[in-house]
Amino acid sequence: YNHLHFKAIQIGFLSKRHLFAAAQRCNMLPFLRYQIPFKPDSSYKPYIPAVLAIHGLTGAIHDTHGYTKSKEFVRNTVVGKHRLPQNTKELEDLISQRSITLLEDIMNITQGDLYFKLLSGSMKTEDIVVGAYNGVNKIGEGSGRSTDEAKQDAA
């Protein structure tokens, strides 16, 4: 993945979960099972080995076949069925459509450093205000009728 050639890809396309799905589409998971201790299928999600495998495969394709084929691999396999936004308006529309998963994307970016704090309200009141914090810094604030709604707004 070269960010200079794929400026419109938002971080969600490069999250651990999305790259795991790309590895699954490439039928890599049976090979990854030999790299870490086996766990039952219901809970087996080798995110990090899958991420490393996709990065390694992309690099190998780039070294062997060049930029055009590696770009095609990223567009068709990693991005998959998702259509990339072509301009700022399409990117903003995509972000607004995916507002529910933005919280998940932000958590992937900060790798667990993101936490929420109740600023005002309670479960019994109509309006709840929640702050999103990255370490000690407040990076967002949101309100809603439920804590989940307030967290999404803060994200």
Describe the protein's architecture and organization:
This protein has 155 residues and is of the alpha+beta class. It folds into two domains: 87 residues, no CATH class; 55 residues, Double Stranded RNA Binding Domain (2-Layer Sandwich), CATH 3.30.160.20. Helices cover 48% and strands 14% of the residues. The protein is built from seven helices and three strands; from the N terminus they run H-H-H-H-H-H-E-E-E-H. A three-stranded antiparallel β-sheet has the order 1-2-3. Strand 2 and strand 3 form a beta hairpin. Helix 1 crosses helix 3 and helix 3 runs antiparallel to helix 4. This is DRBM domain-containing protein. GO terms for molecular function: RNA binding. InterPro entries: dsRBD_dom. Keywords: RNA-binding.
List its salient traits.
155 residues, alpha+beta, Double Stranded RNA Binding Domain, 2 domains, three-stranded antiparallel beta sheet, 7 helices, 3 strands, 14% strand, DRBM domain-containing protein, RNA binding, RNA-binding, dsRBD_dom
